[in-house]
Amino acid sequence: LKEENASLRSRINKLQIYSESQADKMRKLERKLEENKIKEEKEAQDLEAMVQHVEQNLQLMTKRAVKAENNATKLKQENALLQVQLNNYKMENEALRSGQSASLALVKQNADVALQNLLTVITNSRSSIKQLVSGAESLQLVADLLKSIDRISEVSEDGQ
């Protein structure tokens, strides 16, 4: 009986040591799990902040694009008006050439003013069109970024 008791005590001691080591492993794993949860929460908050920042940038770029479109529309209207003016001056010029009475110098001056106005409108139109194209490219870049954020979220969820 003494031998059996000693053997059982030895076995109980081994089992207690094993149980304590398992409990230590469990505590370590629980700590690691908690650390991972905290890390994932921080990453999720960082990702949410980045998404909000991208959304704000997208709204700003959309406003810029709308403004550029409106500006381009105004410039096109001004361009059309100046084209009409130019045609009127050309007709007046033709009338002068055919012998109608008017001052040739005045017609030339009007044509020069119309030409200068037309060149100004053309220059401004080109600038606005370039801004509009740039805004569209920026919007495409933001759209691509948002797509990649979705992919990152999907990969993160799969990795869990």
TrEMBL record:
List GO terms (cellular component aspect). Answer: centrosome; ciliary basal body; early endosome; midbody; recycling endosome
Coiled-coil blocks: 19-92
Q: Which key words are in the record?
A: Coiled coil
Q: Which domain of life does the UniProt lineage start with?
A: Eukaryota
**Which Gene Ontology BP terms does the record give?**
positive regulation of cilium assembly; positive regulation of protein localization to cilium; regulation of cytokinesis
| Family per similarity comment | Belongs to the ENTR1 family.
Protein name (database record): Endosome-associated-trafficking regulator 1
UniProt source species: Penelope pileata
Taxonomic lineage from the root? Eukaryota, Metazoa, Chordata, Craniata, Vertebrata
Gene symbol of the encoding locus: Sdccag3_0
